[in-house]
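Hi C.,

You asked whether I'd gotten around to modeling the 138-residue construct. I have! Everything is below, sequence then structure, no commentary in between.
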Amino acid sequence: MKKYIFLGLFLSLFFSCSNNDFNNKNPYIPNYTVALDINMSLPAYSKLLYVSNSIYYPSQGARGIIIFNTGSGYNAFDAACPNQNLSSCSTMTINGINAICGCDESSYSLFTGLCAGKQYPLKQYLVEVNGNVLHVYN
């Protein structure tokens, strides 16, 4: 009987553990430290209060940060094309709910970070919401 209790405890501990490692490695985009606070009460960022809106925040990450309101939370992605070497054309632009790579015109969803047929998704950063302040970091 003790064997079954021990086995049950072991299995419950084994399956209850989660891997919270955040992996955003991409061979084309260097790992820069990102620690950014966005106050959505400010006019420049207030459109993030509404679903499917995004902003571009320069001077962070490799090519700036795109922050997007998904309706159920916020996504933050590096604005560098994830399948291109850094170059003059590798800064993405926002087109509605997509980010467009200037090098090859590929379109990445700001909901998922994915682009059909591409090896790497957009490089994502973590986002914490505290009232009207977003903390973007890695």
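If it helps when you're writing up: Strands lie at 35-39, 54-57, 65-69, 74-78, 93-95, 98-100, 107-109, 124-130, 133-137.

Thanks,
B.
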